[in-house]
């Protein structure tokens, strides 16, 4: 389990993931060698899975973001596998999640505009296998988008 120093390092890392190790060590109040060892241990134990850049799809011209929820017809034992394989082939699908409950899967889909969304929906989404029900939620605004918790 991370101790208070590890949590302080993680807080600073979340606040500025691009900070150099020297800057991060200074902000966290630890020696650079100690920071390096702690980060290495946090990676080895899986606490830090990856430090990633995020793409702002709107800045690249993808103005439409849709969350699609699906319930599958599970009379086929391969329904999940076949649906997921087909969904992976849709280039505009940026995320696939599975759930327990009334919704089986959720896809995040991006499109340049409404005409592009309609084309994706007609040509790619409606052809996904084993769908018994679906629901679409179009993103209007993002109020909070953070993986941060109080550490």
From TrEMBL:
<dbReference type="InterPro" id="IPR011991">
    <property type="entry name" value="ArsR-like_HTH"/>
</dbReference>
<keyword id="KW-0805">Transcription regulation</keyword>
<dbReference type="Pfam" id="PF01037">
    <property type="entry name" value="AsnC_trans_reg"/>
</dbReference>
<dbReference type="GO" id="GO:0005829">
    <property type="term" value="C:cytosol"/>
</dbReference>
<dbReference type="GO" id="GO:0043565">
    <property type="term" value="F:sequence-specific DNA binding"/>
</dbReference>
<keyword id="KW-0238">DNA-binding</keyword>
<dbReference type="InterPro" id="IPR011008">
    <property type="entry name" value="Dimeric_a/b-barrel"/>
</dbReference>
<dbReference type="InterPro" id="IPR036388">
    <property type="entry name" value="WH-like_DNA-bd_sf"/>
</dbReference>
<protein>
    <submittedName>
        <fullName>Lrp/AsnC family transcriptional regulator</fullName>
    </submittedName>
</protein>
<keyword id="KW-0804">Transcription</keyword>
<dbReference type="GO" id="GO:0006355">
    <property type="term" value="P:regulation of DNA-templated transcription"/>
</dbReference>
<dbReference type="InterPro" id="IPR019888">
    <property type="entry name" value="Tscrpt_reg_AsnC-like"/>
</dbReference>
<dbReference type="InterPro" id="IPR019887">
    <property type="entry name" value="Tscrpt_reg_AsnC/Lrp_C"/>
</dbReference>
<dbReference type="Pfam" id="PF13412">
    <property type="entry name" value="HTH_24"/>
</dbReference>
<dbReference type="GO" id="GO:0043200">
    <property type="term" value="P:response to amino acid"/>
</dbReference>
<feature type="domain" description="HTH asnC-type">
    <location>
        <begin position="1"/>
        <end position="63"/>
    </location>
</feature>
<dbReference type="InterPro" id="IPR000485">
    <property type="entry name" value="AsnC-type_HTH_dom"/>
</dbReference>
<dbReference type="InterPro" id="IPR036390">
    <property type="entry name" value="WH_DNA-bd_sf"/>
</dbReference>
């Amino acid at each position: 389990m991370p101790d208070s120093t590890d949590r302080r390092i993680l807080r600073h890392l979340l606040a500025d993931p691009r900070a150099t190790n020297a800057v991060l060590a200074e902000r966290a109040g630890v020696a650079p060698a100690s920071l390096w060892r702690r980060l290495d241990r946090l990676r080895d134990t899986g606490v830090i899975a990856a430090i990633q850049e995020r793409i702002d799809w709107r800045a690249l011209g993808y103005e439409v973001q849709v969350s699609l929820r699906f319930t599958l017809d599970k009379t086929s034992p391969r329904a999940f596998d076949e649906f997921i394989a087909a969904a992976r082939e849709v280039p505009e699908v940026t995320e696939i999640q599975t759930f327990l409950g009334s919704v089986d899967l959720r896809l995040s889909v991006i499109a340049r505009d409404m005409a592009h969304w309609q084309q994706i929906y007609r040509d790619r989404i409606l052809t996904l296998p084993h769908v018994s029900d679906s629901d679409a939620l179009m993103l209007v605004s993002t109020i909070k988008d953070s993986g941060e918790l109080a550490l």
